[in-house]
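Putative glycosyltransferase
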Amino acid sequence: MPHGPRVSVVIPCYQSERTVGEAISSALMQTYPDVEVVVCLDGATDRSGAIVDAYGDLLTVVRQENRGLAEARNSAVAAASGELIALLDADDVLLPPHVERAVARWQARETEKAYVTCNAYTMGVSGIVPRRTVLPRTTPRSQGHRLALLQRNIVSVLSVYPRAMHEEIGGFDPEMRVLEDYDFWVRAAFAGWTTLYETTPTALYRRTGSSLSARTARMAEYEQRLRRAVRERYDDRLTDDERAYLDRVLDMETQDVYLQRADAALREGRRTEAAADYSAAASLVPWDRRLRLKAGMLRHVPPTGALYRWRERVRREETSRA
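Structure:
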């Protein structure tokens, strides 16, 4: 491909001795010709540092005391020299054409202020789950993208964005101990940056089942904190639909809490409760037709045949996330 901008793959690393080597190697094996890899060792006390050092001058390495994921990303970006920044967590993997496809998508943009979010297959303890990807099957239209983003994070952490975007919106917020990437995308949206979707999976996103309920509760708390900040910070920029949605959702629990509760009720045969929680989740994400169908099936279809098989699929999907 013609010479393009330099891309810096930034990898924050904390206690990731089992996976960081795979992440680094995947970044070094990109088909795109101008890639640098920057790793921030964020106070890691395991053998992550020794593994990173084994790559020698193939990497730029930043060392700091443990400050959290947001500051580790910011430190890596500060040490990077690329015009474009590609995010990669220490437990994820880039497939060889990841950067090349993202750059091609970015170069075909129709507006200067744009970045690319990339799809990925998910990985569990049993390996790759090819039918599960991180981006929604259908992406919202550009005019409704901001509202859709407020409803749920529809941007992959495996994104490639201009350094100028990072500098304009102030990088990742250290106060966000979780969902720091979601907060970043929301602030970018309100700063006028357009999201371009690369829907072909070009990476592997690792899911683990450790402390899922605790993480969900914490993420729910930070989702509400994020939406509350948007309501206060951007009040004069909100559309009527965005303002109405935020006012309603700030009085409710988050979608993930409803989904977790609905799945648990379904496994235990409490169909009425499951239907109510699926309906509540669907009301927060109106464009997700599948949630409305689930709620309707539970209300009107007896628990036999196809519904039984669906319940079994829900159970298997929950197991595969672990």
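The CA atoms of residues 8 and 265 lie 45 Å apart.
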